[in-house]
Amino acid sequence: MKVERVVVGQLATNCYLLISEQELAIIDPGDQSEKILERIKSTKAKVKYIILTHAHFDHVLASDELRKKTGVEVLIHEAEKKFVNFQVDRFLKEKDKIRIGSVDLEVMHTPGHSPGGICLLTDGIIFTGDTLFKDGHGRTDLSGGSHEELLRSLKRISELLKPDMMVYPGHGESFQVK
User: Fold this and answer.
1) DSSP the chain
2) Closest CA relative to residue 65, chosen from 48, 75, 50
3) What domain range is 126 assigned to?
4) Do 12 and 36 meet the contact criterion of CB atoms below 8 Å apart?
5) Which of 49, 54, 64, 178 is the most exposed place for a label (fewest CB within 10 A)?
6) Within 10 Å of residue 71's Cβ, how many Cβ atoms?
């Protein structure tokens, strides 16, 4: 398994390419679809899904264009339905599994930054969207945000983090749990 980061858009959003056995998932294509497509081309992997950790514009802006160009499904948590103004092919829920090559990503519903915020877990890795950053957490003052829910979500995440686990946030640098 390999993770590549492509920083996109005005808010420097981390778009991740998760590659396993020549299959690829695009996580949070926030903008610059051509830049993302160029990076995908260099991997020689086949795109299987576009997965969105939440519906804020800086994480979804290129999803429709990429869906049209790749023909793959766009996935987002069901609690984001009322915030979505683009085509979604499948709505996710807690504990859903998304298979990429030999990797199973497990959906963890982590509301707070947004109602349908999710983290994606697999062996030794967690993609945290805007729930958890290296030096903080997502804001809660946007529509649908809740400080209390975010604190509960952060507590759940902290109970899962193990030494040496890699954390891939929606903005900023990835980091390894000490």
Assistant:
1) -EEEEEEETTTTEEEEEEEETTEEEEE---S-HHHHHHHHHHHTPEEEEEE-S---HHHHTTHHHHHHHH-PEEEEEGGGGGG--S--SEEE-TT-EEEETTEEEEEEE--SSSTT-EEEEETTEEEEETTEETTEE----STT--HHHHHHHHHHHHHH--TT-EEEESBS--EE--
2) 50
3) 2-176
4) no
5) 178
6) 8
Residue 173's CB: how many other CB atoms inside 10 A?
12
Q: Which residues are 105's β-sheet partners? A: 98
Q: What would the two tokens of residue 162 be?
A: 């193990």
Q: What is the pLDDT of residues 52-74, one digit of tens each?
A: 999 999 999 999 999 999 999 99
Distance in angstroms (rounded) separating the CA atoms of residues 27 and 171? 12
Task: Give the total number of structural domains in the chain.
Answer: 1
Q: What is the pLDDT of residues 103-117, one digit of tens each?
A: 999 999 999 999 999
Angle between the 63-70 and 33-43 helix axes, to the nearest 10 degrees? 40
Q: What is the β-pairing status of strands 166-169 and 2-8? A: unpaired
pLDDT, tens digit, 9 for 90 and up, residues 133-154:
999 999 999 999 999 999 999 9
At 69, which CATH number?
A: 3.60.15.10
Q: How confident is the model at residue 88 (pLDDT cuts 50, 70, 90)?
A: very high
pLDDT value of residue 69: 97
